[in-house]
Design a protein that fits this description.
Largest sheet: none
Structural class: mainly alpha
Shape: rod-shaped
Strand content: under 5%
Length: about 35
């Protein structure tokens, strides 16, 4: 049972990391240097 919970936590952390990394780069591509 704890394995699924750990997997969910890992997936969530990975998702937040991707969001944190990709959002600024996407905003930079769309908006350009400001």
């Amino acid at each position: 049972m704890s394995r699924g919970r750990a997997l969910a936590q890992t997936g969530f952390a990975l998702l937040m990391f991707l969001l944190f990394v990709l959002l600024p780069s996407i905003a930079y591509m769309l908006g350009g240097p400001q």
